[in-house]
Input
Amino acid sequence: MVGTMASLPSFIRPTRMTKRSAHLVPGRSVAGDEAVLDAPDDRLSPALVAAGRGDHEAAACLLAATRAAAAWENHDRYVRRLAAFARSRPEWFEAWRTTAPQDPGALLVGAQLAVDRVWPSPARAELLREVSPLITAAARADDRDPVPWRIALDHARGSRAGHRYFEELWAAAVRRAPHHYGCHVAALRYLADACCVLWGDTPHTPRASHRECLDFADRAAQDAPADSLVQALPARAALGFLTDGCGPEVPRARLDAAADRALALSARFPVADPWPAEIRNKLLYVLLRLDRWEDARAQLRLIGPYATSFPWDRFSDDPLGHFLQLREHLLTAGPGPVPAGLLTRSPALLGGHGGHARAEDH
Output
C-alpha cells in the first residue's frame, strides 16, 4: 500500500439528462437561468450523441485518450456515463463489444454495465458474483488503470465480501492511483456499510460509521494535493452523516471543517462548469444542513445551471424540480431555515430512489 495514502480503518482489516430553459446571462441571478440535470462535458457530449446514432467509435476514442493521458478522474466519469447510456440504449455498445471484444474501453464499460444492471436486484450479492470475470478482464486489459479496481471495490461492497478481500483490492487500487477519488468514494461507502451491518470476517461495533468515515476521509484529504477531488471526500462523509439521521453524533466543528475543505476545492474550478457540478451539488446540501446560508448562495452561483441527480434524488423522484425549488427558496426567501421537506428524505422513497437499492448508489 502507498505510504502516504490514508489507510482504511484498522477495524475492517483482518487484524438522465433533462433541461428547463431560459439562458444564462452574465451578472444575472441564477434563479431564472436554465437548469440542466447531469450535463455531460464538451468531450463526453459528442460521444453520447454518436452513440445515440449507433456509432461507438467516439466513445472508444474518448476512453483511449483518457487512458493514454492517465486522466483517471475523467476516465472513471466517462465510463460511468457511457455505461448508464448503454443501459438504456444498448445497441451501440453491443456493436462495440462485437467489433472489438478486447478493447480496454469496451471491457471497462461492459464491467460497469454488468454491475449497474444487477445492483437494484434483491439478489444483488448472488448476481454480482457472476460479474467477477468481466471485472477481471477489464483489469487485465490495462494494468495501470485504477477504474477496474474502483468497480471491483463497488462489487465487493455489493456482494458483501469480507474485509480481508476488500483490503487487498484497496491496496491494488491505490498502487495505481494513490489519490483517485472514485476509489476513495468506494472505500468510504464500504466503510459506512460495514459499520452498520455485521458481515464478512471481522466483528465490529454497529453504527460507529460516521466518525470512522470522517476519520478516513480527513486522512485521505490531508495526504492529497490541494487540487485533488479527494479534498471533497470529508464533505461527502459529512453528507452521509447528515442524511442518515442515526448513529453517534459528530461534532459540528468537524462538519464545518469538511465543508471548508470542499469550499476551497470548489473555488479552484471555473464558475458554471459541468466538471465540478457533482462536488458542488453535494456541498450545497451540506452547507444548507449546517445553516451556512451565505456560503450556500455563493455555491449556487458557482453551480450555475448544472444540477446533478445526486443528492437531490434522495429527496424527490424529480431531482431537477427539487433542485429548482430549493434554489428558488434560497435566493428569494432571505436567510433562515429551508423547508424541512427540501432537505430530508421522504418515507415514500426509502425503498426506491432514496433507499439503498438504487444503481447509482455504487
User: Anything to note?
Assistant: The mean pLDDT is 86. Residues 42-145 form one domain.
